[in-house]
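Lab notes, practical 5.
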Amino acid sequence: MSSAEQVTPSEYIAHHLGHLTNHGHQAQTSLWDMSYVNIDTVIWSVACGLLGTIIMYMAARKATSGVPGRFQCAVEMLIEMVDNNAKSIVHGNTSFIAPMALSVFVWVVLMNSLDFLPVDLFSQWLFPAFGLDHEMPHRVVPTADLNGTLGISIGIFCLMMYYSFKIKGVGGFIKELFSAPFGPMLFPFNLALNLVEYAAKTFSLGMRLFGNMFAGELLFLLIAALLGASDSIFGGIGHLVLGSAWSIFHILIVPLQAFIFMMLTLVYMGQAHEAH
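Output from the prediction step:
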């Protein structure tokens, strides 16, 4: 993780936090602008989704009823863990929900794991090797982009609404929306509270994952900018020690955040199956 030369730490970090968009080097200035597409987030999230699909497909192809290998054991333990959690939380048919939760977990783990790539892998090594502009902004971790995490949480919200209508029916869902939790006489307060709850679930699910992964990415950049730019041996040693220490700690954060995201997904699916 070497830092860029002849730039200040703030310029270095600002450059690495920029996204490759369909507007080139023109950065987004407004908080909400649907004309901007973060191409790097889309590419890496799709790539991680395809990689996760290939890994699970290979596990299914190599599965045997005899003595399983290490890879099969690891996948079976993961599937059993997700399936047990799904059955304990969702009181209903989990034939779709459990595989969906497994897909979410594997996908988020792979996207989070991209944070272990060296921060200058593309700007200083790969881009110049392929004749690309080394100053081109590029962010690798899709879950460190709020657009990516909110996109997943909105998809989960749509599934939550689907199961709410499917399990409770249109009439049952509307009745619950207006009568829970204070009773039908206080329907305005019930409606306002339920709408806020649905919005809070969706935004908190995405922002929790984004906040943790963004903080981890930012700390890697701070270490690289403050120590990696030093030409002294102390700067190099300090960068190696601090970067390695944070990487070891981050190994725990990556699967933990994916597990929390998966468990909250199951909790929301379970709530969609319950009637008040």
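Observations recorded by the TA: DSSP finds eight helices and no strands in the chain. The CA atoms of residues 205 and 264 lie 7 Å apart.
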